[in-house]
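A.,

Following up on our hallway conversation. Structure tokens first:
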């Protein structure tokens, strides 16, 4: 085993590059096997923004959905370009996040190898290849993974810049780092959570340049970021007359869509009158840490990373300094930072919101496992260390493997099944969200309705013609009722006796209207 480990730990070894190619191909295979494509909710909105932009329409300042969505040009502008070239399809909607996911695997390898060793790079690549959340996010147009990727590229350049003795090179790399941070900002605002780490990295972490050079590096990173911000404010000044439009729109987003934030009125994150103190303590001390450390979608990789952090402190290993500060500072920011400028609102910690902590967790875990696997002449417990490394690797692979099957099913499967069941001329009535999804699968359009797919909100039992289909999507209706206080038509709750049920799905029933 020692010989194999040593070969994997050598960038000059053919075995190292065979493993590298194998992990990368496996990552591509899993992402294609778990291909998602079109998805309801946020990805649909970004898809519409991209499709409209591809046809010359930008929804700034006027937009009827969450105000922050049109601001995230870094998410939907590249997709708009793909649509303008190849047309609207699930492939064009998924291409950008797919490429970002694969490049993210390569970035994990590069940073882990740069900070620790070639073996750590391979472990980081392999870990990211099989991470459950990666498989889904790799083909859905969410902003979180894309924003995290560009921020991580910025971190990579900041790492190199802070270790370049040549001042000109350091400044140039710092400017590039800042530009990539700016690109991440154009995808999602969460890049600001990296500010403490970047400051510590460039000013306090061990490096090869003097303090004056580090100060120049910080200024260069700030200049690169500022260049993107200035360009953005100039765009908003031109389109809206308000150079601070992003900040004002972001604050409106928290007010108008309070249902998805830490707000008393939210059915998901709210609390009863007088329960604010209890709610905030639960969120900060229980829900927040649990969401980050005991996250199955992330394969518990932050937990493995924290074990490595403790091990690194015990043995005072310098490798663990940078990834540990990176991870811990981000976890602190995600847990305690407010998501609003006007009041203290901790960020709701959906799995995808925490995407930025994945890379430092993977790098920290990879470095830890590499340290356990590589022989150390100064320690007499080499076999024991390798035993525990193998145990941890098997545990991680087991956790990820147990989740693989659930990630092989595609989103909006109900609508896909219905589309396969319906003929081209069949008319179907259903709730407005399900109808919009059906329109995409039936007609390839991002519009709310067509002549054959009709939302039922303005219909009555008498206006639905004989021979038409009606789909009662129970899970969607329950979601809309809980979230938006939706009121479904009477016939959806108590289907008429003359309606014949022709198909039952897990989430609802399909009826055909028979004689009156």
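Then the amino acids I'd put at each of the 516 positions:
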């Amino acid at each position: 085993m020692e010989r194999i480990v040593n070969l994997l730990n050598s960038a000059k070894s053919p075995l190292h590059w065979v493993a590298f190619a194998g992990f990368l191909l496996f990552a591509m295979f899993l992402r294609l096997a778990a291909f998602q494509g079109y998805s309801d909710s946020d990805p649909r909105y970004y898809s519409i923004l991209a499709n409209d932009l591809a046809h010359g329409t930008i929804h700034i300042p006027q937009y009827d959905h969450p105000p922050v969505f049109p601001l995230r040009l870094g998410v939907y502008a590249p997709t708009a370009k793909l649509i303008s070239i190849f047309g609207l399809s699930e492939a064009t909607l998924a291409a950008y996040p797919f490429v970002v996911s694969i490049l993210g695997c390569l970035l994990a390898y590069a940073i882990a190898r740069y900070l620790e060793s070639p073996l750590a790079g391979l472990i980081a690549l392999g870990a990211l290849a099989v991470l459950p959340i990666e498989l889904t996010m790799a083909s859905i147009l969410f902003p979180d993974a894309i924003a995290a990727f560009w921020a991580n590229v910025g971190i990579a350049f900041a790492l190199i810049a802070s270790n370049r003795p040549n001042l000109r090179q350091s400044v140039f790399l710092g400017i590039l780092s800042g530009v990539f941070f700016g690109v991440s900002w154009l995808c999602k605002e969460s890049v600001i959570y990296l500010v403490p780490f970047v400051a510590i990295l460039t000013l306090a972490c061990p490096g090869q340049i003097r303090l004056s050079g580090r100060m120049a590096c910080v200024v260069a990173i700030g200049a690169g970021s500022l260049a993107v911000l200035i360009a953005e404010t100039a765009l908003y000044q031109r389109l809206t007359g308000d150079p601070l439009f992003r900040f004002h729109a972001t604050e409106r987003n928290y007010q108008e869509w309070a249902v998805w934030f830490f707000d008393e009125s939210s059915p998901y994150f709210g609390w009863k009158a007088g329960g604010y103190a209890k709610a905030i303590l639960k969120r900060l001390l229980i829900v927040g840490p649990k969401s980050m450390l005991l996250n199955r979608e992330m394969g518990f990789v932050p937990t493995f990373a924290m074990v490595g952090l403790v091990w690194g402190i015990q043995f005072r290993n310098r490798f663990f300094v940078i990834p540990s500060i990176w991870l811990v500072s981000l976890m602190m920011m995600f847990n305690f930072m407010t998501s609003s400028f006007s009041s203290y609102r901790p960020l709701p910690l959906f799995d995808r919101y925490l995407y930025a902590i994945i890379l430092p967790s993977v790098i920290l875990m990879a470095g830890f496992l590499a340290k356990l696997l590589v022989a150390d002449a100064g320690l007499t417990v080499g076999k024991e260390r390798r035993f525990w490394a193998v145990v941890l690797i098997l545990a991680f692979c087991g956790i990820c493997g147990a989740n693989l099957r659930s990630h092989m099913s595609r989103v909006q499967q109900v609508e896909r099944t219905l589309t396969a069941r319906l003929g081209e001329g069949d008319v179907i009535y259903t709730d407005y969200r399900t109808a919009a999804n059906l329109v995409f699968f039936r007609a390839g359009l991002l519009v709310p309705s067509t002549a054959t797919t009709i939302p039922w909100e303005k219909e009555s039992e008498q206006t639905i013609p004989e021979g038409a289909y009606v789909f009662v999507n129970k899970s969607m209706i329950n979601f809309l009722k809980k979230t938006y206080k939706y009121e479904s038509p009477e016939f959806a709750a108590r289907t008429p006796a003359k309606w014949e049920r022709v198909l039952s799905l897990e989430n609802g029933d399909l009826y055909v209207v028979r004689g009156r």
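Strands lie at 428-430, 453-455, 469-473, 499-505, 508-513. Curious whether your intuition agrees with the design.

B.
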